[in-house]
Structure formats: C-alpha cells, structure tokens
C-alpha cells in the first residue's frame, strides 16, 4: 500500500517522487502569494495540456481529486482536440 503522503493531491492515485522538486509544480499555484503545490508528473502534463488546449488554466484545487486525466498522451486524442 502506498503511504498517503506520497499520493498526488490532484488525482489521489499516482505516486509522488520523494524529493518534492522532482514532481510537477501545479499550474494552480502561479500567483505571487500562492503556496507551491506539487502534483505527479501525469497530472502536471494534464494541467499543461488543459492550459494549452482550453486556454482557461488547469482544474482548480477546489475540484480535486480529479476523476481522471482530461488528456491522455495519445496522438489520436490530441489530434482530435486540434481539429
């Protein structure tokens, strides 16, 4: 069983790296006074893709944990969004 402190706060499924800075800095913590929140790499990628394709930023922390990733890293799904 994974220790709860090593679970990603965004998805509550993926394991975080023990060294905090090896994880992704959440795009929800970009404000000057925001406390840094780190998420797992898949969630960091998902936030980046949300920001790029939707232009409205990442899923807010008030909606965490997310039920699943918005964007799977497959050419089919990414290409469908571009069309």
Question: What can you see in these coordinates?
Answer:
The chain has helices spanning 41-54, 75-82, and strands at 24-25, 38-39. With 83 residues, it is mostly helical. It has one domain (4-82). Strands 1-2 form a two-stranded antiparallel sheet. The longest helix is centred in the middle third of the chain and has 14 residues, at 41-54.
Concise account of the structure shown:
By secondary structure, the protein is mostly helical. Helices cover 27% and strands 5% of the residues. It has one domain (4-82).
Features:
27% helix; two-stranded antiparallel ribbon; 2 helices; mainly alpha; 83 residues; globular
Describe the SSE topology:
Elements: E1 24-25, E2 38-39, H1 41-54, H2 75-82
Antiparallel strand pairs: 1-2
Share of β-strand residues = under 5%
Strand order of the largest sheet: 1-2
Number of domains: 1
Radius of gyration: 13 Å
Please summarize the sheet with the most strands. Answer: 2 strands, antiparallel
The amount of helix comes to 25-40%
